[in-house]
What does this fold into?
Amino acid sequence: MSETAKFELDGQVYEFPVIEGTENEKAIDISSLRGKSGYITLDPGFKNTGSCQSAITFLDGEKGILRYRGYPIEQLAEKATFIEVSYLLIYGHLPSTKQLNDFRISITRHTLVHEDMKQFFEAYPAKAHPMGVLASMVCSLSTFYPESLDPNRSDEDKDITIHRLLAKLPTLAAWSYKNSVRHPFMYPKNKLDYCSNFLHMMFAMPTEDYLADPIISKALNTLLILHADHEQNCSTATTRVVGSSRVNLYASIAAGITALWGPLHGGANQSVIEMLEQIQNDGGDVDKWILKAKDKNDSFRLMGFGHRVYKNFDPRATIIKKECDAILDKLGIDDPMLDIAKKLEKVALEDDYFKSRNLYPNVDFYSGIIYKALKIPTEMFTVMFVLGRLPGWIAQWKEMIEGGEPIGRPRQVYTGENERDYVPIEKR
Ligand code: ACO
It folds into this structure.
């Protein structure tokens, strides 16, 4: 494409190439702007800045489209397994039967974590948030696998590191919960599928077996697929930027985990349930809380509402809402929180404040209600998000490393003091 963008500054015209993606998304490549003109661009929160070109996930926030490697999220959520979707995201194509089997076997063989890591868990206070524990544990994996330290060592080493991480994350996640309730750790059972194995490590006890209800495993499979990737969100961008320093995969993913933890990002799923509980305990007056969310002098926000990119609807939220009704129905659960959530959604969607700002329920508005129905403790909700998002982070990290992307290093506009002389303390 020969299209260029012209930009006039101080009477001089500069030309920049226009880049077009496969879905006709257009961008102006301003990477030479500073060299040519001395100017940089300023875009706090990167609301209008593309940080990379990527072939992994396409989303159109206006039309509510989300596709992994071209496949619509609706089809993947209904028909695929999480392991298959992980393969798709990481390797770029749907696996053949043999590829899927080999992938599954490799992941199954790496589910144990080094026994010494158990001592790390035991050193944390019981009240430690499992996200803090999980991020540290994932980073600690790098200390056990020195061959992972150079991300470019060989494709084989890279693959083993990726498989190890996918295999060990459910073990570490479940153990961070077991540790918080000071229950004995349950070892993985390799005959179980990915989701059932995680549920076994969460809920089995040495005294009592736990065989996951297939309804619950299936629901978890769907939730993990819906969370598996979401292009350049806060945690994914973090993973790519941290990885761009050529630190190892474990450290890059640990950074992604901590970015996800915040309540404006993945931590919203925990905040939504806490908010619904608060509204319920306060008598369930939805209008009162809507007013609070609209009041600029009140720090309260409607958690699980709004999205940086989706401005009409979040397709994941549409699927999750349906799943939520179906799962509660199948499990015979009547949760008053679901009624409050639906009322909040209805009132907000008819309210000018939310309408004019294009604020709609996001993926996290209903996911917490499903996790609650699956008996996942509230503090583990964001850990569940980590389980889902892992293959996306890995795929994005791999794309960045293999594409030889430069180190991420934004610029700034300095607004501090001009040069001044140091004043000795006795003269201040
Ligand atoms: N409740 C009330 N008002 C809101 C909300 C909300 N949940 N979200 C946005 N607004 C308002 C803002 O106050 C702002 O109003 P103004 O124009 O009058 O100042 C306007 O809508 C735009 O909001 P911004 O915060 O500027 O939008 P941004 O794109 O920066 O933030 C975000 C998006 C962080 C998701 C925001 O909507 C939010 O805080 N939502 C609640 C937290 C949440 O659910 N996060 C999960 C997102 S999904 C995910 O990460 C997996």
Observations:
- The pocket of acetyl coenzyme *A is lined by residues 45, 264-266, 268, 293, 301-308, 357, 359, 362-364 (CB under 6 Å).
- The mean pLDDT is 95.
